[in-house]
Amino acid sequence: MSSRSGYPGFFITGAGTDVGKTIVCAGLLRKLSRQGRGVAVKPVQTGCERIGDKWRAPDLELWRRASFSLSAPPELYCPVCLELPASPHLAAALAGFTIDAEDLSAAVEAKLRVHPWAIVEGAGGPLTPITHAFTILDLILRLNLPVLLVVDNRLGAINSSLLSLQALRQAGASVLGMVFNETSPRRDELEEHIRRDNRRTITKLGNIPILAEIPHIFDFSADNPAHWEQIDRAWENFPRPLQPSGGTA
Ligand SMILES: Nc1ncnc2c1ncn2[C@@H]1O[C@H](COP(=O)(O)OP(=O)(O)OP(=O)(O)O)[C@@H](O)[C@H]1O
Ligand SMILES: [Mg+2]
Which of 47, 78, 79, 231 is most buried (most C-beta within 10 Å)? Predict the structure, then answer.
């Protein structure tokens, strides 16, 4: 699991926002927690709630609930919490400041240095701006962690995932594979067909493997242990160690 940077872990990005990155990270942290106490990092979280002098970050909250049965629950870390549910650069601007990319990267690196494993979840997709001069992709390159790309399997996934893959690879990121997720239920036969074809077409055109597939969980609740068991099953065959996949997408 060691990356070229020497930090053991994964950077989870998505082919868009709301594709299920946090649920995917939660499943992965449940799996990795069996190897000891690591850290799950959300470098920038927007849409946070201020309670007194503390911030409540929704993605960390889901991870906390995913950790309920773990003997070595991960440290949860979010250095930049912003109230507005918008792109980080905009949420920060509307709060009256610009995120310091150097400070942010150094703070995350400090956590990666002292844990046996780390999962870092980006905001939105690879080209989401943290500032006008520093994107999620720049953070991926700075941390030099291997990337897992989360794809919401629905109409439109071919274009969004291949574009994300292209941007990641062209910049020199090490992409290990995709995690397919289903945020919505399959409604009819056509949708079944589209989702089956998405799997075939994206893996072929992107020359990239699917490393885990999370099913749609009807009425998902983070407080329902049966739902976490379902997610755990999706990670059973997650291969390790992993090599980056080649390709020209
Ligand atoms: N497999 C699934 N089954 C049921 N619901 C899901 C599934 N995956 C995600 N969802 C739901 O879809 C929504 C978006 O998921 P999630 O918050 O994990 O996305 P995200 O990519 O992390 O978003 P962000 O970019 O805001 O961090 C949530 O309401 C989540 O509960
Ligand atoms: Mg999230």
Answer: 231
**Could you give all domains of the chain from N- to C-terminal order, each with its CATH number?**
9-234 (3.40.50.300)
How many other CB atoms are there within 10 angstroms of residue 73's CB atom?
Answer: 18
Confirm or reject: Cβ of 14 under 6 Å from ligand 1.
yes
Q: Is the pLDDT of residue 2 over 50?
A: no
Secondary structure (DSSP) of 94-144: HTT----HHHHHHHHHHHHHTSS-EEEE-SSSTT-EEETTEEHHHHHHHHT
Best probe residue, ligand 1, of 22, 128, 181, 214 (max atoms within 8 Å of C-beta): 22
Active site (annotated) includes residue 42: yes
Model's pTM, two decimal places? 0.95
* Interval 60-107: pLDDT, tens: 999 999 999 999 999 999 999 999 999 999 999 999 999 999 999 999
Does the beta carbon of 216 sit less than 6 angstroms from any atom of ligand 1? yes
19 CA to middle of ligand 1, Å?
Answer: 6
